Amino acid sequence: MELAEADIATLGMLVLATSVGVFLVNYFSKINIALRKVPGPFYASFTNLPLKIAVITGRRTFLVHQLHQKYGPVVRVAPSEVSIVDAEACKIIHRAGSGFPKSPYYARFINKPVPTLFAMIGSKEHGERRKVFARAFSKTEIHDLKSGKADLLKWLLFMATDISGHLMFGESFRTLENGEVNDYMTTLQMAGKGGIISEELPLLGFIGYRLPIPAIRDVFRANAKQTVLGEDAIENGIKTGNHKRSIFTQLDEGSDALTRLDLSAEAGNFILAGTDTTAFTLACLLWAVLRHSSLQAIIEEEVAGLPEDFNDAQVEALPFVNATINETLRLYGPAAGSLPRITKQGGAELGGYYIPESVTVSTQAFTLHRDEKFWPDPEKFDPYRWLDDSVQEAAKMAFAPFGTGPRVCIGIHLAQMEMRFAVAMFFRRFKGARLGSESPMTLEFENYFLLKPKGDFIIIPA
Ligand code: HEM
């Protein structure tokens, strides 16, 4: 017994000594000394624990936003991570040839031994892969490809899933028709959360993957399963010949170098990147508009003027519909959290501070989109601000819902077209619809990389 107590005491001393050692090494490291001038909470100079806890509880973007409100546009959020929302500095970090590669953080979005467009780090490798997909995702090609009570988010996810199926595999998943969540959707919903928690807490990921409790185990297995489903869909498409009508037939020079493994990895990532993003944005848009009957009336009037067989160019010409989509992306953009990059060799001067090399610098549109310098009364959902010419300057400096520079979203035209069509169709078909009383009064989000609106979004047709 006495021996056990002595052992515990020794162990305690060891843990304490190790913690003090780690603290001292971190505190007096070159990076820490260089970053001391960067404002931020004291803990950030020696631990990333509060940030980690925020990540695994789905609150990272909001913690970082609070820190910016307290400390300004450049904030140290962890020993070797600085968050930057100074508009000029964000441009420096993301522009072509900036020398700030994506951080290894993006590896959590792949589940294959091959990197994908989204996760590639090297700019040469990324440039080559981007060229292969550039034309297929261009506005012209995307155009040519398209030939009681309702749970809004569910139906929007059905829509986005079916469109993704069409584009990636030449075949719809038919979830809209069947009205049922399929295996692919359940997997997608879990993949983001499972991947991020496993990356932050590998031991929990390891145990979760093996737990005999399906509800928990499936969350940690979703990433791997999503890849298998992607492979199956590609194989099926090839067998049936349907893939000939998919995005993968529009590829440019260099596509010969893509293996079957590359294709299914890219397909898996495209579906992940393109499904929830558009569905979440549309859910927020409909929620925000249906809460303001005056906005609803203007949109209903605009879309009522479209011909029966309207096309995308005609919806793109409707000022209020487009202003409303932009305003939704500003306030409720689904990918507005941190986009981490690594500082280049020799470090850089960003937002008035010297940041040494090899430090993670993350920028977040969530905060940039609420900067009063550019967006007066920033928390107000106000599509009218987009009808004023002066908004152009603000948008150039501080509007980046799809990212900017060479890593800007490749699906931007697809997403915008999908959202324009969905808005036009909804407000033509469901004139006078209203939100059910179950719907949330204010929007709150769960943040596992994407910002997913919380709550039931119930629509009641007129
Ligand atoms: C409202 C809808 C969407 C939003 C807000 C959005 C947002 C973003 C953002 C912010 C990035 C930059 C990430 C970074 O720099 O770290 C990005 C990249 C990307 N997005 Fe989207 N996205 C949307 C829809 C789509 C769709 C429909 C696809 C379809 C395939 C897609 C595929 C991708 C890919 C592959 C990348 C990586 C591009 C590269 O690194 O070259 N996204 N997206």
Automatic annotation (TrEMBL):
Keyword presence, Metal-binding = yes
Binding-site positions, heme: C409
The membrane-spanning stretches of this chain are 6-28
What does the record give as cofactor? heme
Q: Which UniProt keywords apply?
A: Heme, Iron, Membrane, Metal-binding, Monooxygenase, Oxidoreductase, Transmembrane, Transmembrane helix
GO function term, MF aspect, one: heme binding
Which domain of life does this protein belong to? Answer: Eukaryota
**Leader peptide range in chain numbering:** none
Biological pathway: Mycotoxin biosynthesis
Q: Which PANTHER family does the entry mention?
A: CYTOCHROME P450 (PTHR24305), CYTOCHROME P450 MONOOXYGENASE STCB-RELATED (PTHR24305:SF96)
Q: What family does the Swiss-Prot or TrEMBL record give for this protein?
A: Belongs to the cytochrome P450 family.
| Descriptive protein name | Cytochrome P450
